[in-house]
Design brief:
Helix content is about 20%, strand content about 40%. The chain contains two helices and 13 strands; from the N terminus they run E-E-H-E-E-E-E-E-E-H-E-E-E-E-E. It has helices at about 30-60, 120-125, and strands spanning about 5, 10, 60-65, 70-75, 80, 85-90, 95-100, 105-110, 130-135, 135-145, 150-155, 160-165, 175-180. Strand 10 and strand 11 (about 150-155) form a beta hairpin.
Length: about 180
């Protein structure tokens, strides 16, 4: 730490703690301390940025609409066109769409009687299953022999069924709103 004493101006020794002329304590060098903290702060910022990007990329979703009801599912699910079905016999309209990813399958079906209206909650109860509340709706939960599951509920004049290949896939679905 060569330099001059801040009190008397005498030349300081390289490794001395005090001025050889007046005894004033030499200031401790801070350059290395500041660099260490700066490096730690930069590393912390980089780690947070990487974690945030992984979180944002891993949690992207898509909005899907089945017969006027919007649902949110992860973007990793791809529409399965072979599971898209719309039928209308003049009295009952039924629409179903399916999506799959590497692990699970989701199918959403909507049934309604256009014009005359139905008591959708009563129809959902006739499907059977255990009464439960999911997705913010009262409905009926069923487990099938082949390890798949469904939840059926009424929404205004529509009966909605969410069918999943694995119980954990229920957490991949969010009912957003009825749009018509």
């Amino acid at each position: 730490m060569a330099g001059h004493c801040r009190k008397c101006g005498a030349k300081l020794k390289e490794k001395g703690d005090f001025c050889p002329n007046c005894g004033e304590k030499n200031p401790t060098p801070r350059k290395n301390v500041i660099n260490k903290y700066t490096i730690l702060i930069i590393i912390a910022i980089v780690i947070m940025a990487v974690a945030a990007s992984i979180f944002l990329v891993g949690n992207q979703t898509q909005i899907v609409t089945v017969d006027g009801v919007k649902f949110e599912i992860p973007s990793s699910y791809v529409n399965d066109p072979s599971r898209t079905d719309i039928s209308y016999d003049g009295n009952v309209k039924s629409s179903a769409m399916g999506w799959s990813n590497d692990e699970n399958y989701i199918e959403i079906g909507i049934t309604r009687t256009p014009g005359s209206g139905i008591n959708s909650k009563e129809v959902a109860s006739q499907v059977g299953g255990s009464p439960t509340k999911m997705f913010g709706h009262d409905g009926y939960y069923q487990k099938y022999d082949e390890e798949s599951y469904s939840f059926v509920f009424g929404m205004k004049d529509k009966v909605c069924m969410i069918y999943v290949s694995d119980y954990d896939a229920f957490s991949d679905v969010k009912v957003i709103e009825e749009v018509d």
